[in-house]
Design a protein that fits this description.
This protein is mainly β. It folds into 2 domains: about 220 residues, AttH-like domain (AttH-like fold), CATH 2.40.370.10; about 130 residues, AttH-like domain (AttH-like fold). The chain is built from 1 helix and 23 strands. A hairpin with a 5-residue loop joins β21 and β22.
Length: about 350
């Protein structure tokens, strides 16, 4: 069919698609393999990204193969006529293994990793896939597409299209820009580049069910920290019923040394931004969950105060831990409270890493 790229089947890495469930030995094996490949990628000699830069769309929606690593992340909060609110997460990351792609075309140049998580009162889906590329993952500039197996992200000047064939249900979503994208590190002070689009309008289907909602898109490339490294993070994204949005990122050392930092942004319905930090916002853990036999206390409930915020964040369900190559607690949350004295509520997604013992 014209305009379609031929498929090659499942990922070549071990020849398997890795899903949420699996025996402990399989979990240990993919954790070890993932760590070895990440170590190999960190040794590769990629040129640094230096200096100021300008965001150019739709071109920058696509891949930047000259960068050491790259990630696309979509967090969407969706509902339908007969559908309770759900949280959908899609992530696709590439880690370069060799800077010189022409040295041996039969050797993989990158490790690709992706996941899909769908959580809500009546849905529970989590899948992870790993690939060495070689036809099973990559990017096609002519088709304006990046892919991993049967997961594709197509981009144009105005929209992004997600097509995700999962073991439980197909997902088809179109994300339309309602505001301009915000460049990250445009001055070139950090070794990465990227942008965010916090309030994209979403339409599409989960299976046969029509859904609508709003999504937050992040796209970064360069020396991007990868899961399993020395830093761990907690990320909260909220879409509020008044049309606003909030993102908070708490970063800390995995070994417990040093002091955690908190950074974020609060957007009102018109897109006006208020920068948040640990000097302006207090984060108090209000609920903790522990995985049986896994160790680690996950702070799954938060109370946020300061900078006009008085928000209580509670999980859809306490157990939303995903047994991926690098385990993570990641799922849907509800927020209630007030902002600048005005009552508000919203649906969000919370991601917690680095709590395994």
């Amino acid at each position: 069919m014209a305009g379609k790229r031929p498929r090659t089947g499942l990922s070549l890495l071990v020849g398997l698609v890795f899903f949420l469930a699996g025996p402990a030995s399989a979990q240990d094996a993919r954790e070890s393999l993932y760590e070895q490949l990440v170590s190999l990628g960190n040794e590769a000699d990629f040129p640094p990204l230096d200096g100021a830069w300008e965001l150019t769309l739709p071109g920058d929606h696509g891949a930047h193969p000259g960068a050491r690593s790259e990630s696309w992340s979509v967090v969407a909060h969706l509902t339908g006529a007969d559908v309770a609110p759900v949280s959908l997460q899609f992530s696709l990351a590439r880690l370069g293994l060799r800077a010189d792609a022409s040295a041996n075309p039969l050797q993989p140049t990158a490790l690709f990793r992706g996941h899909v998580i769908l959580t809500g009162p009546t849905v529970d889906l989590a899948e992870e896939r790993l690939s060495r590329g070689l036809g099973a993952a990559g990017h096609d500039a002519a088709l304006s597409q990046v892919w991993l197996d049967q997961w594709t992200l197509d981009h144009s000047a105005e929209t992004l299209t997600l097509a995700l064939d999962t073991a439980k249900t197909p997902i088809r979503l179109t994300l339309a820009q309602t505001t301009g994208a915000t460049p990250q590190n445009s001055a070139g002070e950090a070794p990465f580049r990227g942008y965010s689009n916090p309030k994209m309008e979403v339409t599409g289907k989960i299976g046969d069910t029509a859904v609508t909602g709003v999504a937050w898109l992040d796209h970064l490339w360069g020396d991007v920290p990868l899961p399993g490294g020395p830093l761990a993070y907690d990320r909260l994204i909220l879409h509020l019923n008044d049309g606003g949005a909030l993102s908070l990122l708490r970063t800390r050392r995995r070994d417990g040394a040093g002091i955690a930092t908190l950074d974020g942004v609060l957007l009102d319905a018109d897109g006006q931004a208020t920068v948040l930090s640990d000097e302006s916002v207090d984060l108090t853990v209000s609920q903790v969950w522990q995985a049986a036999g896994q160790g680690g206390d996950y702070p799954v409930g938060w109370h946020l105060t300061g900078a006009g915020l008085d928000l209580t964040v509670k999980p859809f369900e306490p157990d939303q831990r995903q047994a991926f190559a690098v385990p993570v607690w990641s799922g849907g949350v509800r927020a209630t409270g007030s902002i600048n004295g005005q009552t508000t509520s919203g649906i969000g997604t919370l991601q917690l890493t680095g709590y395994e013992e």
